From TrEMBL:
Pfam families: GerE, Response_reg. Gene3D superfamilies: 3.40.50.2300. This is LuxR C-terminal-related transcriptional regulator. Residues 93-158 form the HTH luxR-type domain. InterPro entries: CheY-like_superfamily (IPR011006), NreC/VraR/RcsB-like_REC (IPR058245), Sig_transdc_resp-reg_C-effctor (IPR016032), Sig_transdc_resp-reg_receiver (IPR001789), Tscrpt_reg_LuxR_C (IPR000792), WalR-like (IPR039420). Residues 1-65 form the Response regulatory domain. PANTHER family: TRANSCRIPTIONAL REGULATORY PROTEIN NARL-RELATED (PTHR43214:SF24), TWO-COMPONENT RESPONSE REGULATOR (PTHR43214). Keywords: DNA-binding, Phosphoprotein, Transcription, Transcription regulation.
C-alpha cells in the first residue's frame, strides 16, 4: 500500500468516526508473532495469511462481519502462548473479570481455550445461542471489541495459562 502500511491503515479504519463498527481482516504474507500482535493491537478482528483457501477466506469474512474474530489456524495457539509469555499478567486485568457471572466466566475460559460456540454449548449443556449470548454479554461487560480481545484478557488476567 503506497504511503502507509496495513497496521497503520487498520488503526485508522477502526478508530475513524466515519466508519463506526468497521472490522478489519489483515491478509498478509507475514505470519510472525510481531505482525500478529501489531495487527491485534491496531484493532484487527482477523489475521490470515495469503495461503488461505478462497472458501476459508469467504467464511472468515462472514465470521468477522458477524462479530467474531479470526486468526489463521496455524498461528492461533502459537500467538496466544507467545502473547501470554511476553506480556505476563496485566495489572488490574483480574479485577476486570469480577463483573462477570460465573457462567460468563466459564464461557470466557472456553473461548480462550479456542472452543467454538457449538463446542462451548456442548461442554456446558446449553444451546449454541445461549453460548453466544454469554460471549456477547462478556464482551460488553468487559468493554472489549471481540473474541480475540476476550482471549487476550483471559490470558492477561491469569484466568488461562499457556498450555492449559
Amino acid at each position: 500500500m503506497p504511503g502507509t502500511g496495513g497496521i497503520i491503515a487498520t488503526r485508522r479504519i477502526v478508530t475513524d468516526s466515519a466508519t463506526p463498527g468497521c472490522r478489519v481482516i489483515i491478509l498478509t504474507t507475514f505470519d510472525t508473532d510481531e505482525h500478529v500482535f501489531a495487527a491485534l493491537r491496531a484493532g484487527a478482528s482477523g489475521f490470515l495469511t495469503k495461503e488461505v483457501e478462497p472458501a476459508d477466506l469467504r467464511r472468515a469474512v462472514a465470521a468477522v462481519a458477524g462479530g467474531d474474530a479470526l486468526l489463521s489456524p496455524g498461528v492461533t495457539r502459537r500467538v496466544i502462548e507467545q502473547f501470554a509469555h511476553r506480556q505476563g499478567l496485566a495489572p488490574g486485568a483480574g479485577q476486570r473479570l469480577a463483573v462477570l457471572t460465573s457462567r460468563e466466566l466459564e464461557t470466557v475460559k472456553l473461548v480462550a481455550l479456542g472452543l467454538s460456540n457449538d463446542e462451548i454449548a456442548e461442554r456446558l449443556v446449553i444451546s449454541p445461542l445461549t453460548a453466544k449470548t454469554h460471549i456477547t454479554r462478556a464482551i460488553a461487560k468487559l468493554d472489549v471489541r471481540d473474541r480475540v480481545q476476550l482471549v487476550i484478557l483471559a490470558y492477561e488476567s491469569g484466568l488461562i495459562r499457556p498450555g492449559a
